[in-house]
Design brief:
The structure holds two protein chains of two kinds. Chain A is mostly beta strands. Helix content of chain A is 15%, strand content 42%. In chain A, strands 2, 3, 5, 6, 7, 8, 9, 12, 13, 14, 16 and 17 form a twelve-stranded mixed sheet that branches. Chain A starts with a helix and ends with a strand. Chain B is mainly beta. Chain B has two domains: 112 residues, Immunoglobulin-like, CATH 2.60.40.10; 582 residues, Maltoporin, Chain A. In chain B, a hairpin with a 2-residue loop joins strand 14 and strand 15. The chains are: A mainly beta, B mainly beta. Chains A and B meet through helix 1, strand 1, strand 2, strand 3 and strand 4 of A and helix 4, strand 40, strand 41, strand 45 and strand 46 of B.
Chain lengths: 265, 778
């Protein structure tokens, strides 16, 4: 009798277990969307300036199409050192180019003016001087160097292997070091040089591209690094990327840089 | 600010002196003793002890209430004949004649009360309303715990606390209590005077604390008195039961999700024991029945033990131990991300309680061990943003001693001191390797020492005005700094049914709890204040009113609070975790504030009881290095929070309870759009970027859920059995746990090129879940 009652009770428990439904549901969903204007421009000292990108954001849940994102009716122009106006024209795929080639020079200040359907946007950047380095040293499998700093700049370095006409270089800088603003020396380093580059070649062919960026680039670089997205239900990535373009509902960056090729030896 | 507070305290002391002068005792005899349950021998808290003068009208003469140890003292009684009465809800009133023939000295009078049926007499959270001048305090006694709503067959204390206004959880699988805008580290959790770092189980199916082992719980949501310290926000003080003196007893329950057993009884006439353990095996159910589920696997087990020994009439020793271990880990089909989070609490404490006619003292030495490990591995070749390994091991030794001195029935002083030695053993890394767990050279080790002393006076200044005024002084050795914390609270009663309260507190905290804001799983990381890391600091202001209505059947209370938080810490955005990087370099300092208003309607009497709570609140943070220096709201910031708790005792055998909770959706950092970014600086070309909301700037849909549970008691072959049924999320609300971006590869039919489309998806973890179980009492 006791066992029979116990058997019934166990059956009830098992039944409860089976009835208990447990499910994880993953479904697609739309989020609220507000359109933003996207402005990008990057000037390098003594290098031909190609274009400013003026586009719009697109909603998620669709494949990105540059034609949909393009804004062909913007009025855009540079003002160089507060005096010379350099108009820009739409050339397709969200790009605005100058009528004539521009070669930004160290110390010049470029102001970018944009107007779209009555909305005005503005950005400004000063082209840095090419940076100079003191100590340059190969430490194990990366290069470290001391940089002489100037105010409102930041610095990064790429390793470069040059063998005649063949150039191999790191895909990105290792880190960005901001100038302390007092003219002192800071140390920057490259990413690790791959073994195949280190093993098969003499260090005589190793060089460094040392970059000086304007101050806003450092803020952009750091906030963009934090923006990495994560494709996983249990994680969320991202944080706002710094923008130095002013105006309503606008994001982007308008920056300038200069680089020097430094010999390892 | 401090000058004003000091002036205020001086004024109070003058008033206090005046009060004592006008309330000088009539004699010099002290009546004191313990109030205990006649059958189990357990201490009875909050028993009213009333002394009457002899005569036809038996007029009221003096009265006090027993404290947490069941102890009371009535000092200053003159010789003569009195009637003494002991009243406690759920117990038969005990009355006796007392003849005091001496003019000075002490009289020990212990009372043992017999239990009676409490069906029609109480019960809910604040039925034990004591007219103390402590604001925001909720007290749950063992009898009250028995009547709270049950899930999984046992009283869910944690769930009941979360359903109180001002108390929240962050997500469905978060751990810890978020009280008045503070993170879980801002709540001081004590179990038998042992500081416990995070005793929380994930808050869905099982109670945080084993209700069979709990004697009573005090929750002070803010502006807590000087006897507590070391945390910014609130206090959760749990006292474990001593085993019954009646006879050996066993109680066990078997359920589809968890089971438990409690053994207790006398060892001899001077000592008792209590052992209580639980195991939750939700992961076994998941693996067996729901093998396709992507829900995280979860299990835990915990153990409570307490031994008591009466050395003499005045001295008692108790040895308490608490152990719990939780593990949350990825299912087999979790996709690329494998994860495992585990946390362990272990503590043991030796307490010596001594009572005399005018004071009761408690001295304790305790050892606490806590460990929280987080492992996330994306399984891909390159390091992903979600790859993470962190471990914080804490070993504490704590010595404390306090005295509760009964100066007069209207004036009680409490004083004490504490010394904490915290040993931290920490590591955080963007990658996981066995060596990180085992190589002590890679880990950061920190010794942190803090000591404190406090004094507080609890007084009935006039017939209407009560106060609790105190101060706490800290010495933090690592920074060689001293902090002084004033604490004041007042209550003014216009009549028996209506009172107003106000309180102010200044608090410091010497440990910091950080989370990965970008990971929805629990990733607790504890770090102490050091030479570089300042202690956090908070001021809290609370005002409130309280009224009892309809013959004290209903209690209504409204409280408003404001608190600021200085020197609080978070991980920097995109912090690079590495054993070679000093952890202090990964932290950023900021500030915060929280404010809100809480409404509470509580039906306290009858077979149908329950409460409705509503909270309207804000909590926000400001860090230079987070959210580009803009104000943001933590994930657990919820503007509106409503909870309804109903409990109906249909008969002596059958009870039904239901809870409904509504809360504004939690915050997340989500992308709103996609755009083409230009690679600038040293790179050329374009890249697809996502335009994110501000930190936690996107709100998930509102959360709401109804749970119902029922239990039926019956006799089974001379034993008491209870069968129960719990229905979780009765109307199957699809509460969103998280939303995320999924990058889907597609082929363009026109160009046959492979394109990536970012799509927003959302995940629902817990739909309708019924559970059944059985409890057995021997």
């Amino acid at each position: 009798m006791k066992l029979r009652k116990l058997f019934y009770l166990i059956n009830i428990l098992v039944l409860g277990l089976i009835i208990g439904c447990q499910d994880t549901k993953i479904i697609e969903v739309d989020l609220p969307y507000t359109e933003f204007t996207v402005v990008y421009g990057n000037m390098q000292a003594d290098t031909s300036f190609e274009e400013v990108w003026i586009t719009r954001t697109l909603p998620l849940n669709q494949t990105f199409n540059i034609e949909d994102a393009s804004i062909p009716n913007a009025i855009a122009y540079f003002v160089l050192d507060g005096m010379n106006v350099i108009p820009l024209r739409f050339s397709g795929a969200g790009k605005y180019k100058p009528f004539n080639s521009i070669y930004p020079e160290a110390g010049q200040t470029y102001e970018l003016f944009i107007e779209i359907d009555g909305n005005r946007f503005y950005a400004e950047s000063k082209v840095p001087e090419p940076p100079t380095a003191g100590r340059v040293e190969l430490i194990d499998n990366y290069i470290s160097l001391d940089v002489n700093t100037r105010a409102n700049e930041s610095y990064g370095a790429l390793w470069v292997y040059i063998d005649g006409r063949y150039i191999t270089q790191a895909d990105e800088i290792h880190s960005l070091i901001e100038s302390p603003g007092d003219g002192s020396v800071v140390t920057v380093r490259t990413k690790i040089i791959p073994d195949d580059v280190m093993d098969s070649n003499s260090s005589d062919n190793l060089y460094i591209y040392l970059y000086a960026f304007d101050k806003d680039f450092a803020r952009y670089f750091n906030s963009k690094a934090k923006n990495s997205s994560v494709d996983n239900a249990l994680t969320q990535g991202g944080s706002p990327i710094f923008t130095n373009v002013s105006g309503e509902n606008v994001i982007g960056a308008f920056t300038a840089s200069a680089k020097s090729l430094i010999e390892l030896n | 600010m401090h000058i004003r507070i000091t002036s205020f305290l001086l004024a109070f002391l003058l008033l206090y002196g005046y009060s004592i002068a006008n309330n000088l005792p009539d004699g010099d005899v002290t009546i004191s003793g313990f109030i205990k349950d006649a059958s189990s021998g357990e201490e009875l808290i909050g028993t009213n002890i009333i002394l009457y003068l002899p005569g036809d009208d038996n007029s009221y003469f003096r009265g006090v209430a027993s404290n947490r140890y069941g102890f009371y003292a009535l000092p200053g009684i003159a010789s003569g004949t009195y009637y003494i009465e002991f009243r406690n809800v759920g117990y038969r009133t005990h009355r006796d004649t007392l003849i005091i023939s001496v003019s000075s000295g002490s009289l020990k009078y212990d009372a043992f009360l017999d239990e009676e049926d409490i069906l029609l007499s109480e019960v809910t959270v604040s039925a034990q309303r004591e007219s103390k001048a402590i604001v925001s305090e909720i007290k749950l006694t063992h009898n009250m715990l028995k009547s709270l709503p049950t899930m999984s067959g046992e009283v869910d204390i944690f769930k009941s606390l979360v359903l109180l206004p001002g108390v929240q959880t962050a997500t469905e699988i978060s751990s810890g209590l978020y009280i008045r805008g503070g993170s879980p580290d801002q709540t001081l959790t004590l179990v038998d005077n042992m500081m416990v770092y995070n005793p929380s189980h994930l808050g869905n199916f099982a109670s945080t604390f084993n209700s069979n082992a709990v004697q009573d719980i005090i929750l002070v949501k803010g502006a807590y008195p000087a006897e507590y310290g070391g945390r910014l926000s609130s206090v959760l003080d749990i006292k474990l039961r001593s085993g019954t003196k009646e006879k050996e007893k066993a109680n066990f329950g078997l359920g589809t999700l968890n089971s438990y057993v409690t053994l207790e009884g006398p060892l001899n006439d001077k000592s008792t024991f209590l052992l209580s353990g639980r195991s939750m095996y939700y992961d076994l159910v998941q693996k067996t029945v729901f093998s396709d589920s992507e829900n995280p696997y979860y299990n835990f087990h915990d153990l409570n033990a307490k031994f008591t020994y009466e050395l003499s009439d005045k001295d008692a020793l108790s040895l308490s131990a608490f152990y719990s271990r939780d593990k949350l880990y990825s299912p087999d089909n979790a996709g690329d991300l494998e994860y495992e989070m585990s946390w362990l609490n272990g503590s043991v404490s030796l307490n010596w309680m001594r009572s005399s006619e005018k004071y009761i003292s408690n001295t304790a030495i305790s050892y606490v061990q806590y460990q929280f490990d987080s492992k996330l591995d994306n399984g891909l070749q390159s390091i992903q943003a979600s790859d993470y390994f962190a471990s914080s091991k804490l070993s504490d030794v704590n010595l404390s001693s306090d005295f509760e001195i009964f100066l007069h029935e209207n004036h009680k002083m409490k004083t004490g001191l504490q010394i904490f030695m915290h040993n931290y053993d920490l590591i955080a890394s963007d990658i996981y390797h066995n060596a990180l767990e085992n190589d002590s050279d890679l880990r950061t080790k920190i010794l942190s020492i803090e000591s404190s002393a406090f004094m507080q006076l609890e007084s009935q200044i006039t017939a209407q005005l009560k106060s609790n005024v105190g101060t706490r002084i800290y010495y933090f050795k690592n920074q060689k700094r001293v902090n002084i914390e004033p604490r004041v609270s007042f209550m003014y009663s216009f009549d028996e049914a209506f009172s107003v309260k106000a309180a102010y507190s200044l608090t410091h905290q010497f440990i910091h709890l950080m989370f990965r804001n970008d990971i929805s799983l629990p990733t607790d990381f504890w770090f102490p204040s050091t030479k570089e890391i300042s202690p956090s600091r908070s001021q809290q202001f609370v005002v409130g009113l309280e009224s009892e209505l309809f013959d004290k059947q209903y209690l209504v209370s409204v409280e408003a609070y404001y608190r600021d938080m200085k020197d609080i810490y978070e991980f920097k955005e995109n912090a690079k975790f590495s054993p070679s990087t000093p952890i202090v370099d990964l932290l950023t300092k900021g500030q915060g504030e929280a404010y809100g208003i809480e409404f509470f309607l509580n039906k306290t009497v009858g077979s149908f009881t329950g409460w409705i709570g509503y909270t309207y609140s804000f909590t926000r943070r400001l860090f230079d290095d987070l959210n580009i220096g803009r104000i943001y709201y933590p994930r657990y910031d919820r503007r509106n929070d409503i909870s309804v708790v109903l409990s109906y005792k249909m008969s002596k055998n059958f009870s039904l309870s239901a809870t409904w909770n509504y809360a504004s959706g939690q915050g997340m950092t989500m992308p709103y759009a996609q755009y083409q970014g230009q690679k600038i600086g040293n790179q050329t070309g374009s890249e697809l970027l996502l335009f994110y909301s501000e930190r936690n700037g996107h709100k998930l849909p509102d959360y709401h859920k109804l749970d119902i549970s029922a239990s039926y008691d019956f006799q089974f072959d001379d034993s008491e059995l209870t069968v129960y049924m719990s229905l979780y999320n009765v109307y199957n609300r699809q509460n969103i746990f998280a939303q995320f971006v999924s990058f889907e590869e597609e082929t363009n039919p026109d160009t046959q090129e492979s394109v990536t489309t970012p799509k927003i998806k959302q995940i629902v973890l817990f739909p309708f879940i019924p559970t059944f179980g059985i409890k057995y009492n021997l």
